[in-house]
Amino acid sequence: MSGRLFIVSAPSGVGKTTIIQSALSRWPSLRFSVSCTTRKPRPGEVDGRDYRFLSRREFLEGVEKSRFLEWAEVHGELYGTDGEAVERWVESGSDVLFDIDVQGARQVLITHPTATTIFILPPSTETLEARLSKRGTESEEQLRKRLETATAEMAQAPWYDFLIVNDDLEEAIADFESILRATRCMRRHQSPHLQALLKQPSPVKPS
Predict the structure, then answer these.
(1) How do residues 103-155 score in pLDDT, each as one tens digit?
(2) What ranges in 41-183 are assigned the alpha helix state H?
(3) DSSP category for residue 7
(4) What are 118-128's pLDDT values in tens digits?
(5) In terms of C-beta density within 10 A (0-12 exposed, 13-18 middle, 19 or more buried), how is residue 95 classed?
(6) Three-state DSSP class for residue 32
(7) Are 124 and 10 in contact (CB under 8 A)?
(8) How far is the C-alpha of 126 from the C-alpha of 170, rounded, in Å?
(9) pTM to 2 decimals?
(10) Which domains does the chain possess?
């Protein structure tokens, strides 16, 4: 049975990374697709764990060689998903989790239309602005651009399968894991097992 794909998107500062990391720690069979990017690492980020940090030249060479399942330019930096690793995991039956933006989500859905899409929302725009400001990693101009981008991204949320509001972190994590669990029972994922059952000979002997 092929693995499932989960696409997660959210405006910067909503808490998406914390929710994803919690799910990965509790679901050992879930693979995380580490995105490639040309931006510089933030304090505490590790190459290969948080992102694969590439030079702009390396990234563009990957684009020319069709290395990426999806890619986009965000805030002047390039982001993309290494398609070869994802395909290997899916073919082996592993579920794969994507942490990508709206542009990337649409690109992945072109080739994997049955992927489950999840969008994480802030409780309010004021809360989002406060969280971004508290992070202290952007200038005033960068913060303004982040908020403008967040508004545009949230306008795309209605076409996602699931929406989670991260007001209470533990509740948001529980909602996220409920989605992972529920998709196991979807007809399209369990149909191979049902087909196998129906092909088995009946245990009832004719009288």
Answers:
(1) 889 999 998 899 999 999 998 988 888 877 777 666 778 788 888 888 999 99
(2) 56-64, 83-91, 102-111, 125-135, 140-154, 169-183
(3) E
(4) 999 998 988 88
(5) buried
(6) strand
(7) no
(8) 21
(9) 0.81
(10) 5-185 (3.40.50.300)
